[in-house]
């Protein structure tokens, strides 16, 4: 980058930076002036979440740079009114990160719009069809967005949406560039299969789109919890509650927000469903091309408070699965949980279970639905990391917790962790790598004789202060679970787990442990000190 003066920053001798527009985990976006073509543009300065990445992981830094360049070049092939246009790429060579020059969209983001109020179902359907057409255009050239959320949807002055920030997209042709195991994205909008470390595919983008529409009409996220780790557990282990304000959009949302990607309608079906909501019923075929989304009006005007739109349910979706199942209907285990790591959000799979013999929902270790588990070569060679023995110790008992801590300590060579999650049959911890305090390794204990290293490691989040597992009052956990069942109104949970959070200098917080309970109608949790004293209660909304 050149500077043309002490107060003037010019990229590639051509793009003068005018002001910062925003930033995130993968870089900073600037408003800039193109000195050659005399127009304003947006310039993304790609940065890794950890500024020291090149120092301690030069190969990771090189892969990041190569991935960004490949994805930017692939995205430049997409010409679509609802996909941000790539004008130029500035590549300074090895040991640098690229700058991506894009069209400047002046109308703010969808998140800005939603901060002012929800959308009506009709407005959301028009928005959804436009964004769907953008995703189909990207999927056609091998690009999956992987981070569809309101902040990544920009609005033109006339209200038409533009999908942006494909910087973390996965290009199918460059699968080898993501071999580190890192999955980047926003946990509350990621599909369950992506949270669990699987590739996902276009169906995962459709989940994210449906979740965006759900939030747009309901005004809240149904699975967002008090921490990133709890949100990930909810995405993997809980059903999405039925929307209350979606009106005729409800069948579409309930058909897309299912864990099994094979059970979701494909993009063509979704487009036809949205078309009936926006244009009225019309004959369509599977050969239909993606809608170009051009509209003569797209106001996205704030709705009248308290007046959700209603309308008839389209005939072709009347057989969509119902939003709820009766309590105790689920009898097999679901995969759940994950550990939040670094600013790039590297996820790990944690187990979940339900249907314990004693009614307390201790996990059985069998999987149902499409959410599976993936073990690394360091883990057991079995197809699933679940131990299916009936006499396995309950790790949520006081004795089970002490045993898990002892086994994990032996495997890690120390008792300090930056995350710990315990289910009835599993305990998964991440702890600092000896001699490399910015990195962590991941270990799993299943009630066997030893804990083992499990899956890829990663980078510890800045500000995290690893905590000693021996500093926690494990004898207090059974009482916390009993109290949670009584005070949270979940007497027969289908899922129970414990999350340990370390201290943080970033948030000026002390170590805590939280017990989570959920059933078919939602989840809630108690947060306690390391000594087991309850400090906060997060009941679900039963209203």
Automatic annotation (TrEMBL):
The keyword Kinase applies. This is non-specific serine/threonine protein kinase. It comes from Streptomyces bobili. Residues 276-331, 354-390 are annotated as: Disordered. ATP binds at residue 44. SUPFAM superfamilies: Protein kinase-like (PK-like). Its EC number is 2.7.11.1. Keywords: ATP-binding, Kinase, Nucleotide-binding, Serine/threonine-protein kinase, Transferase.
């Amino acid at each position: 980058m050149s500077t043309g003066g002490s107060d003037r920053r010019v990229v590639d001798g051509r793009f003068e930076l005018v002001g910062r527009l925003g930033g995130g985990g993968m870089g900073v976006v600037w408003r800039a002036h193109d000195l050659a073509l005399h127009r304003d543009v947006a310039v993304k300065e790609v940065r890794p979440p950890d500024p020291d990445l090149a120092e301690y992981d030069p190969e990771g830094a090189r892969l990041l740079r190569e991935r960004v360049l490949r994805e930017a070049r692939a995205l430049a092939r997409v010409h679509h009114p609802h996909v941000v246009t790539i004008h130029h790429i500035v590549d300074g060579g090895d040991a640098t990160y690229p700058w991506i020059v894009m069209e400047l969209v002046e109308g703010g983001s969808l998140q800005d719009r939603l901060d002012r109020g929800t959308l009506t179902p009709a407005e959301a359907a028009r928005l959804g069809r436009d964004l769907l057409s953008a995703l189909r255009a990207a999927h056609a050239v091998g690009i999956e967005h992987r981070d569809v959320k309101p902040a990544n949807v920009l609005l033109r002055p006339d209200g038409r949406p533009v999908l942006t920030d494909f910087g973390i997209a996965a290009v199918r042709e460059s699968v080898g560039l993501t071999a580190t195991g890192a999955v980047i994205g926003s946990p509350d909008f990621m599909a369950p299969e992506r949270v669990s470390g699987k590739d996902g595919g276009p169906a995962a983008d459709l989940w994210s789109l449906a979740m965006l529409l759900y939030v747009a009409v309901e005004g809240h996220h149904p699975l967002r919890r008090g921490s990133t780790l709890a949100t990930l557990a909810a995405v993997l282990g809980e059903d999405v509650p039925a929307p209350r304000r979606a009106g005729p959009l409800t069948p579409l949302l309930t058909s897309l927000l299912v864990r099994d990607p094979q059970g979701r309608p494909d993009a063509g079906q979704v487009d036809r469903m949205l078309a009936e909501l926006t244009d009225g019923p019309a004959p369509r075929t599977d050969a239909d091309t993606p809608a170009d989304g051009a509209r003569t009006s797209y106001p996205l005007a704030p709705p009248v408070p308290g007046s959700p739109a209603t309308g008839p349910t389209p005939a072709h979706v009347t057989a969509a699965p119902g939003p709820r199942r009766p309590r105790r209907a689920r009898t097999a285990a679901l995969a759940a949980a994950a550990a939040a790591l670094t600013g790039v959000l590297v996820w790990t799979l944690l187990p979940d279970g339900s249907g314990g013999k004693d009614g307390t929902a201790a996990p059985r270790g069998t999987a149902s639905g499409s959410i599976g588990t993936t073990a690394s070569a360091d883990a057991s060679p079995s197809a699933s990391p679940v131990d299916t023995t009936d006499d396995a110790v309950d790790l949520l008992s006081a004795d089970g917790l002490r045993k898990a801590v002892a086994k994990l300590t032996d495997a890690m060579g120390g008792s300090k962790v930056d995350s710990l999650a315990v289910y009835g049959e599993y305990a998964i911890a991440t702890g600092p790598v000896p001699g490399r305090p910015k990195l962590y390794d991941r270990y799993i204990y299943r009630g066997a004789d030893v804990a083992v290293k499990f899956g890829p490691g990663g980078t510890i989040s800045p500000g995290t202060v690893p905590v000693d597992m021996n500093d926690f009052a494990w004898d207090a956990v059974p009482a916390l679970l009993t109290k949670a069942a009584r005070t949270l109104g979940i007497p027969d949970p289908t899922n129970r787990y414990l999350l340990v959070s370390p201290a943080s200098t970033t948030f000026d917080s002390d170590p805590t442990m939280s017990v989570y309970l959920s059933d078919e109608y939602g989840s809630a949790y108690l947060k306690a000190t390391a000594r087991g004293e309850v400090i906060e209660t997060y009941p679900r909304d039963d209203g």
